[in-house]
């Protein structure tokens, strides 16, 4: 198919396959419109580097070029965040949990007010879809608990050794950054190379994420989704996995 004969985007019926890479033009919009949010559809989408993003029907499917990606070895553990984590650990005020409050994390992310947006893309239809994926073991939450209360967190899709960051929230200072740092530490412990961040933001760039051409991203993604998934658990010993973490006792 030549450049001149490409469709603007594909129209999908429930159960339809996604269009092949390069078969549609995505310069001004989504890759595809329609389809459904069933677990098998979402899993097929993520395996091809495609994700849903819409605030009202119909469903819109995206595969942006360039793609924002955090290579875990490039994560920037800023000195202030490292000191904050260490201080909270010494005071026994911080606990990181995985999947202990997924539904709450999902709803809190949906309620975050974001610059330039009047609503949320994590609409009830999307929440129900990701709840189903969570039950299937393909979506997880990383939660920052301070003084025994949920203070922030994030949720992500995991297929094989591929990690797709979806959204984060914070009710207290640095709580979402702590959750991301914990996710990076788990990825490094399991040898997972990157976290897909989808869209470029100044916040993600400040933490080490960089844009990557879509073709390169898809090339790196293909073997990752074929590998077995890790067991997502967190312990305080994993903080030492982070770049820039001092090579000495964790709590000193």
UniProtKB/TrEMBL annotation:
| InterPro entries according to UniProt | Acyl_CoA_acyltransferase (IPR016181), Leu/Phe-tRNA_Trfase (IPR004616), Leu/Phe-tRNA_Trfase_C (IPR042203), Leu/Phe-tRNA_Trfase_N (IPR042221)
Q: Which GO terms describe its biological process?
A: protein catabolic process
TM ranges: none
The kind of enzyme this is, by top-level EC class, is transferase
Q: What is its EC number?
A: 2.3.2.6
Q: Which residues form the signal peptide?
A: none
GO cellular component terms given for this protein: cytoplasm
Give the matching SUPFAM superfamilies: Acyl-CoA N-acyltransferases (Nat)
Q: Could you give a GO molecular-function term held by this entry?
A: leucyl-tRNA--protein transferase activity
UniProt keyword list: Acyltransferase, Cytoplasm, Transferase
Its annotated compartments are: Cytoplasm
Asked whether the keyword Transferase is assigned, the reply is yes
PANTHER family recorded for this chain? LEUCYL/PHENYLALANYL-TRNA--PROTEIN TRANSFERASE (PTHR30098), LEUCYL_PHENYLALANYL-TRNA--PROTEIN TRANSFERASE (PTHR30098:SF2)
Task: Quote the HAMAP family the UniProt record gives.
Answer: Leu_Phe_trans
Give the UniProt family note.
Answer: Belongs to the L/F-transferase family.
According to its UniProt entry, the function of this protein is described as: Functions in the N-end rule pathway of protein degradation where it conjugates Leu, Phe and, less efficiently, Met from aminoacyl-tRNAs to the N-termini of proteins containing an N-terminal arginine or lysine.
What this protein is called in its record is: Leucyl/phenylalanyl-tRNA--protein transferase
Q: In which organism is this protein found?
A: Vandammella animalimorsus
Q: What is the lineage of its organism?
A: Bacteria, Pseudomonadati, Pseudomonadota, Betaproteobacteria, Burkholderiales
